[in-house]
Design a protein that fits this description.
- This protein has eleven helices and six strands.
- It is α/β, with parallel strands linked by helices and 266 residues long.
- Strands 2-1-3-4-5-6 form a six-stranded parallel β-sheet, sandwiched between helices.
- β3, α4 and β4 form a beta-alpha-beta unit.
- α2 crosses α6, α8 packs across α11 and α9 packs across α10.
- The N terminus is likely disordered.
Amino acid sequence: MAGIGNADECPKSLLESMARRLDSAAVVKRRANVKLLLASAAVLEYVFHVAASIRVLIVDDHPLFRNGLRQVIQSDARFELVGEAAEGLAAWQSILEKTPDVAVLDINLPGLTGLEVARKIHDQKLRTRVIILTMFKEEALINRALDLGVNGFVLKENAVEDIVNAIVTAAQGGHYLSPAVSGCLVRRRNRAEALAAHKPGLEELTKAERRILKLIAEKKTSREIAAELFISPRTVEAHRANISGKLELHGSHSLLQFALEHRSSL
């Protein structure tokens, strides 16, 4: 049987047929690659969504209010509601078991209050961010919450409007206060600046010294501070002496008095 010698000897129709087949195969391959890329993108988008969703726990002893929060949170694709509780002890157990990114806590809860739960989270250095819900606008209460490392302070009257922004901000490590009480942050900052001007030694404190000063402001003893920071009581006493020297404080109780008086500014 005679073979095909070269392209010039091939019938033109045969060459055209071969070209069409090659083009068709290339198109099929390109389409398959596109489908593969689209499928991969969909998988990545799903994985990213799951990984990026903010895990939220809501705690309030009023079922109707809690139901309203649930509806708001579940309607936002950025959030995953991991649990609910109606009192403080159950909230604390849920936080330990489910490790939510953000816990939304009513300040007045049976068992443990919202601030007591926040203190436990703060003392145990858990990663859960805290948003406090309250009907009260007292600045002293807000300062107490901020001193405990709370990331959000939302008035119940504005909760439906504010809670989404509060959760997102808290999850990112920021602070959110309902607009009605946001002036507290400004006043707190102004007090801190005024105190720094009055006591320039504050700027000289090391990170460890400033942390110990804040713990003193929480009325913790040297032994309690030592246990929390995993250092010896003698080391705490040395830090206290250094702080007193830098702040030019004299007398056995002067450091404690200073810390308590300026607690919200430290």
